[in-house]
Amino acid sequence: QAKADGRDRWCAYSEEFDRTFRHRQSTEADLREALLTETGIEVYYQPIATVSSGEVIGFEALARWRHPTRGMVMPDDFIQVAEASGLIVLLGERILRQACQDAASWSPPLRLSVNVSPLQFVQGDLVNMIAGALADSGLDPQLLELEMTEGVLIDDASGTLLLLNRIRALGVSIVLDDFGTGFSSLSYLQHFPFSKVKLDKSFITDMLENCDVTSIVKAVLALSKSLNIAVVAEGVETSAQLELLRELGCDQAQGYLISRPLPINGLSEILGGIG
Ligand code: C2E
Ligand code: MG
Ligand code: MG
Ligand code: MG
């Protein structure tokens, strides 16, 4: 009996494993197809505003995938597959090029943030790719900022520093994304040429209920200020959170309270509303 149970469980497990495996494989094949045929990959934009006045100063570009049968697929359901398969290098370039092209026509000119995957630091020629996207779009390099996570810093700190300095030399700024989630070390803020840090959503979600979290937010703000690094709060959903961030002196905010990510044709109201 025990043996039969174990066997059933094993079968259930292996079927589940099989399903997951097949799903990943078809996601990869479909994503490759989408990239090769240049259909279905879209860029959405989420506003980033100053905390003090609420003025929108820029947008973060976020990848979206309009799948022929699955509908709109979100990054959590394809970025990992893209990274594991290496497709992220091509996907990252597509997103950057499209976003630079879009941002080059924004009036007034606003900042553009684009996410860069760790794999893009080791595969392909990241610096020349960025230079090409800037040249082809005509976007002012001073308006572009690249968001990276701390994973890149751990793997090859000295190689990464060289690359980051070459990117900075183009006039582009570097932003540390999701700060506080991984193996964040406060010393990263000083060792790498970041102009901005994005405080992870989890801190913003918890800071009103948990004063230990508030203390961490305060400490990051104090350290960043002394290092001349701006801080963006991610995932701001309530006006109470925004109010506390204002009290604490946080520079910028991004979140559903301000706006969800929007398709390019949804930006006109925000772009037109300023200036
Ligand atoms: P991220 O770079 O930290 O982007 C912020 C994510 O938080 C976005 O999710 C955004 O829609 C979501 N968000 C913003 N405000 C709120 C809020 O108030 N509440 C909640 N619950 N969520 C909020 P999204 O677009 O699903 O992207 C998820 C992640 O996928 C991104 O996290 C980024 O790591 C990755 N990603 C997205 N686009 C790209 C891309 O073009 N390249 C690379 N390498 N990664 C990307
Ligand atoms: Mg980001
Ligand atoms: Mg983030
Ligand atoms: Mg995040």
Structure commentary:
- With 275 residues, the chain is of the alpha/beta class.
- It is 50% helix and 20% strand.
- It contains twelve helices and ten strands.
- It has an eight-stranded mixed beta barrel, surrounded by four helices.
- Helix 3 (88-103) runs parallel beside helix 5.
- The longest helix has 36 residues, at 2-37.
- The mean pLDDT is 93.
Layout of helices and strands:
Elements: H1 2-37, E1 41-50, E2 56-67, E3 71-73, H2 79-85, H3 88-103, E4 111-115, H4 118-122, H5 126-137, E5 144-148, H6 151-155, H7 157-169, E6 173-179, H8 186-191, E7 194-199, H9 201-206, H10 211-226, E8 230-233, H11 239-248, E9 252-253, E10 262-263, H12 268-272
Parallel strand pairs: 2-4, 4-5, 5-6, 6-7, 7-8, 8-9
Antiparallel strand pairs: 1-2, 1-9, 1-10, 2-3
Helix pairs in contact: 3-5
The structure holds ligand C2E and magnesium ion (3 copies).
The site of one magnesium ion has 4 residues, from loops.
